[in-house]
Structure formats: C-alpha cells, structure tokens
Design a protein that fits this description.
With 226 residues, the chain is mostly beta strands. Helices cover 0% and strands 41% of the residues. The chain has no helices and 16 strands. A hairpin with a 2-residue loop joins strand 1 and strand 2. The chain folds into two domains: 55 residues, no CATH class; 162 residues, Sandwich (Jelly Rolls), CATH 2.60.120. Strands 6, 9, 12, 13, 14 and 16 form a six-stranded antiparallel β-sheet that branches.
C-alpha cells in the first residue's frame, strides 16, 4: 500500500504507511520528518483493527541503528587457561550472557555490522571468538575455563560466530588502559525467538593465555534492527 500525504496533528506532509502487528492486524503508521515512526490515530482502512502495541509492530519503514553493550567479569584468579576453553564469569546465566533489545519487536530481526571486545588487562593479546545464540544453550552456559564444546542439539539456536583478532592497546598500553579487538565488515543476520527481543552469547578462546584476576571483558555490537 503506497504512502499517503496527510494532515496529521496539524502538520501537512506527514507520511502514513502501514505495518502489521505480530498478530497480523493492519495498523497505520505515521513517519515524522526525522524518521520517527508512531501509530497514526486516523486513516485506518475500513475494518482494520485499531488496538495494537507499538512495540509489537512489524514494519518495513526503514531500520534502526543501535549499539548493544555488556560486560562480564571473570573469577578472581590468575590460573592459566587451557586451549579451547570459555571466558566467562564463575556462574554464567541468561542474565550475565544476555544481549538485550537486539530487535525492535518480539521475534524481530536485524544484522550485526561491527563488533568489538575491550578488556582491562593491558597484557592480554589472545584472540577470542564470540558465539551468538537466539536461545540459551540446552546445557546452559559454560563457566570460566570450562572446556568449550557446542552441542549439535543447539544447532538451531546458534546464530553464528564472530572471530576477533588478537587484542591491541588503545594508546600507550599503560596500567589502567584498554586493549581491544575489533571485527570489521561483519554482516551477521539474526532473528530473535518468538516473544523475545534478545539474543545470548558465549566467549571462548583457543590458546593458553594467563588472565588477570577479575579481568573484565566489555562486548560492543553495532547493529541494524529491522
């Protein structure tokens, strides 16, 4: 259905298009001059439903750029990692490994276009992998230094893996600084589970690095939400 130019809220030239709720109801949407989308209160086609939550709209009116961030703190020890082990907190869960609001609507979709991981250990150089899930692994998340081994039972929940290069200093690399690994040129498409706007993650590595006590890892994802 084509956009229509209408008078809305006393303004001439506002654009109305149409989207559907998760339940399939047709809903008119007003697109403001700055691209903000809201539910229009008039202009409904005859017989169309008028009750819908804006958060549940599925619409193709542009996309939304956003940044999702989360930090994990590993345990307070400096025991060397074995190869192919997880980097996590002592008791990882859907709370500590949550990528919240990755979609604009429940069951929504989008793309990860850039990713970075920062750490407060200025001696850390080991490359890491970030696995993205649409649902928590069936056996739960793997605690720090646990053997990392994805299960075939989780195949439908695994969105993909982002491979980060070795970490480099942001600046002089002095105490109190940051080391970072950046994955550029990503285009990892995802779709959230029905009834959810969230995804989940797990970090793992293939080497034998020595961590800092209570070392922090800060995940930053640049996303485009449909």
């Amino acid at each position: 259905m084509a956009d229509e130019e209408i008078v809305y809220g006393g303004r001439i030239g506002a654009k109305v298009t149409y989207g559907r709720t998760v339940g399939g109801d047709l809903v008119p949407l007003m697109v403001d001059d700055d691209g903000k989308v809201s539910i229009a209160e008039s202009g409904l086609p005859s017989g169309a439903a008028t009750s819908a939550k804006q958060d549940d709209l599925i619409t193709a009116v542009g996309g939304q750029a956003a940044q999702v961030q989360i930090e994990i703190t590993r345990p307070a020890d400096t025991t060397q990692y074995a190869a192919n082990t997880a980097i996590a907190d002592a008791a990882p869960s859907v709370t500590t490994h949550l990528l919240a609001n990755m979609a604009r609507a429940n069951g929504g979709s989008g793309r990860i276009v850039r990713a970075a991981i920062m750490t407060d250990n200025v001696s850390w150089t080991q490359a890491v992998n970030l696995v993205i899930y649409k649902a928590a692994p069936a056996d739960g998340f793997i605690a720090d230094k646990g053997a990392y081994d994805d299960k075939y039972a989780d195949k439908a929940s695994i969105v993909g893996t982002i491979q980060f290069p070795g970490f480099v200093p942001m600046g002089a690399g002095a105490a109190g600084g940051i080391r970072v690994a950046v994955a550029k040129g990503e285009y990892l498409a995802y779709e959230c589970a029905a009834g959810s706007k969230d995804l989940y993650f797990q970090i793992w590595q293939t080497g034998t690095p020595t961590p800092a006590s209570a070392q922090k890892f800060f995940v930053v994802l640049d996303v485009e939400k449909d």
